[in-house]
Design a protein that fits this description.
single chain, globular, mainly alpha, Helix Hairpins, 6 helices, about 65% helix
Length: about 120
């Protein structure tokens, strides 16, 4: 990842502003759009076996489609975070720290249970 989140956010904001779309990007609209775009990622797996889904990355056309959908998700996430005043880098670091407390390596290594089920 060569570009900083701030640079990507500014690029998305510029794209939006050049089209006068900020008027359509209230917080609720961005939340809904993020969810819809994430669903389009999931749609790529609909009705496919695990092996077929794993093979998406090996096929150039499928990987390109997945990349487009991931880009849409990222764009809406950046717009949402900007609108809400969230520093995504700081938020992720804070969340990783919380998760490290919930999922200590000694209890969670190689396990898929939720933290409430770890002994």
């Amino acid at each position: 990842m060569s570009e900083r989140l701030e640079d990507l956010t500014q690029a998305v904001l510029n794209f939006r502003d050049e089209r006068n779309w900020a008027q359509f990007h209230g917080l609720r609209h961005l939340m809904v759009s993020l969810s819809l775009e994430a669903s389009e990622v999931l749609e790529l797996a609909q009705w496919k076996s695990d092996d077929e889904v794993e093979a998406l990355a090996a096929d150039a056309a499928s990987r390109a489609e997945l990349a487009d959908e991931c880009a849409d998700v990222l764009a809406y996430l950046l717009l949402l975070a900007d609108r809400a005043g969230i520093d995504l880098t700081a938020a992720l670091r804070a969340k990783l720290a919380k998760n490290a407390q919930k999922y200590p390596v000694a209890k969670s290594y190689g396990r898929r249970e939720k933290y409430t089920a770890l002994e």
